[in-house]
C-alpha cells in the first residue's frame, strides 16, 4: 500500500491528525533533547529518528495542505477529563501551537514529550 493510501485510510478513521501531532511533538522533543544526549549510541538513535520522522512530517504537511485542508474537521479531544464545554474551551486555549495546528485539544505539551524521552534515556542507561 502506498503512503498516500495509508494516510487516506487514517483520515477515513479520523486519526491522521493524531499521528501527525505525535510525530511533530516527538521531533520537537528530539531536537530539544539531542544536545544533552552524551551516549554515542543514543545520539545515533536520536539523529536517525529525526531523519525518519522528518521525512514523514514533510510528507504529512504537504498532504495536509492539499487533501486535508479541504475538509474542515471537528476538534479531536484527547483528554478524558474534558466533560464540559467550559473545560473544552480552557484546554483548547492552553493547548500548544502544535496541538492547535493539528486540531488536537489536549493538556499534553511538547515538554511532556521531551520529559518522556529523558525518562526513556535514563531507564536505558
SSE layout and pairings?
Layout: H1 3-13, H2 16-33, H3 40-68, E1 76-77, H4 85-94, H5 97-102, E2 104-105, H6 110-124
Parallel strand pairs: 1-2
Helix pairs in contact: 2-3, 2-6
Largest sheet: 2 strands, parallel
* Number of beta strands: 2
**Mean pLDDT level:** 86
Structural class: mainly alpha
Give the spatial strand order of the biggest sheet: 1-2
Assign an overall shape: flat
Q: What is the percentage of strand-forming residues?
A: under 5%
- Unreliable stretches (pLDDT < 50, length at least 5) are none
- Bin the helical content: over 70%
Kindly provide the radius of gyration, computed on alpha-carbon positions and rounded to a whole number of angstroms: 16 Å
Helix segment count? 6
What distance separates the N and C termini?
38 Å
Along the chain, the helix and strand elements come as HHHEHHEH
Structure description:
The protein is mostly helical. It is 71% helix and 3% strand. The protein has helices spanning 3-13, 16-33, 40-68, 85-94, 97-102, 110-124; strands at residues 76-77, 104-105.
What's this entry about, in short?
The protein is mainly α and 125 residues long. It has helices at 3-13, 16-33, 40-68, 85-94, 97-102, 110-124; strands spanning 76-77, 104-105. The chain has a two-stranded parallel sheet.
List keywords for this structure.
6 helices; mainly alpha; single chain; two-stranded parallel ribbon; 125 residues
